[in-house]
Design brief:
2 copies of one chain form a homodimer. By secondary structure, the first copy, chain A, is mainly β. Chain A contains 3 helices and 15 strands. Chain A starts with a strand and ends in a 10-residue tail after the last strand. At the A-B interface, strand 1, strand 2, strand 5, strand 6 and helix 2 of A face strand 1, strand 2, strand 5, strand 6 and helix 2 of B.
Chain lengths: ~190, ~190
């Protein structure tokens, strides 16, 4: 095996495609976001990395809240559109049906199989991006996305992003059971 | 559509499966990690969320560096094993062939299609987890994983994790081109 150095602008090899919901000037706004991870076990916290050029950055700071919505594959066109146009120039408030949980500043998307409303917990200011830490207030789905009371990824049918080739992918075949298949390992 | 509240312990709907490389007492250690995201555009920074109960937390603080390695599906058993056993009790230094780039404290895995070495940039201490921010020093692959000089996700064949059902998945069918398919959207 011969390793080659491919530089510094590298990405997580698969990224979850989400729509970040914020309120800007009292209207819902949605931005395509793939730089997101669970960040803390207890309480449940998420981290979302938003470039400060985006209007969503202002929306989160203004309302101390945001939502993370997971679109399904059949929403791919609208989802990608939200990454192409800026809330500075285009009103994105009527692309989706919007609903709210507890937080007025965290509009969520009715068409998305899973939505999470977050209260701003902390901000880590990085050179170009703000890393917003949000505490989960609640998560929402519909019964049709559950199997045995658990979210079923095949029913949700979410999108995965790869960069810098800029492709969307579906979730594929089951590969194994986590915290289980490793028990077969013999060192 | 009728939304139901499914509580607070929610996860990113798909998570990239990685192996976090650290050095502990001068030996390489690897921990399965799926709470990771790119965090900053320029310079390239990653955020990894590590529960403070893990030995890897100590390893990063000790050496101010870590690596992020993306295993392929054929490494699923060893990868899952690294999430089942702790570096506190088990020496995980000989599971993989190890190589180094510039940083002595960031052991990388030869068998992984993609590895990233990171210098510690900042730490955000959250209630149970440390969110380590790492600056990319370099990323490594092999020519066989490239198509037209770009990383090819189908050749890399990485693993995706879903929680709390705890399943590993493969990347599936191509769904569309990002920053492109949305141009077809008519509001």
């Amino acid at each position: 095996m011969s390793k080659i150095n491919i530089g510094q602008n590298i990405f997580t090899q698969t990224m979850p495609v989400t729509l970040l919901g914020t309120k800007i000037n009292d209207k819902p706004n949605f931005m395509t976001l793939a730089w997101v991870t669970r960040a803390n076990a207890n309480p449940p916290l998420f981290a979302v990395a938003v470039n400060r050029v985006h209007k969503s950055d202002y929306g989160i700071r203004e309302n101390n809240s945001f939502s993370i919505n997971f679109p399904s594959e059949d929403m791919i066109t609208q989802t990608d559109y939200c990454g192409l146009v800026s809330g500075r120039n285009i009103d994105k408030s009527d692309i989706f049906k919007v609903f709210y949980g507890e937080l007025e500043g965290a509009p969520m998307i009715m068409e998305c199989p899973v939505s999470i409303e977050c209260r701003l917990f902390d901000i880590l200011e990085l050179p170009t991006n703000d890393l917003f830490i949000g505490e989960v207030v609640a998560a929402y789905t519909e019964r049709k996305y559950l199997t045995d009371d658990n979210l079923d990824i095949k029913k949700i049918n979410p999108l995965i992003l790869t960069m810098p080739d800029n492709n969307y992918w579906k979730v594929g075949e089951h590969a194994g059971n986590a915290w289980e298949i490793g028990k077969n390992f013999k060192d």
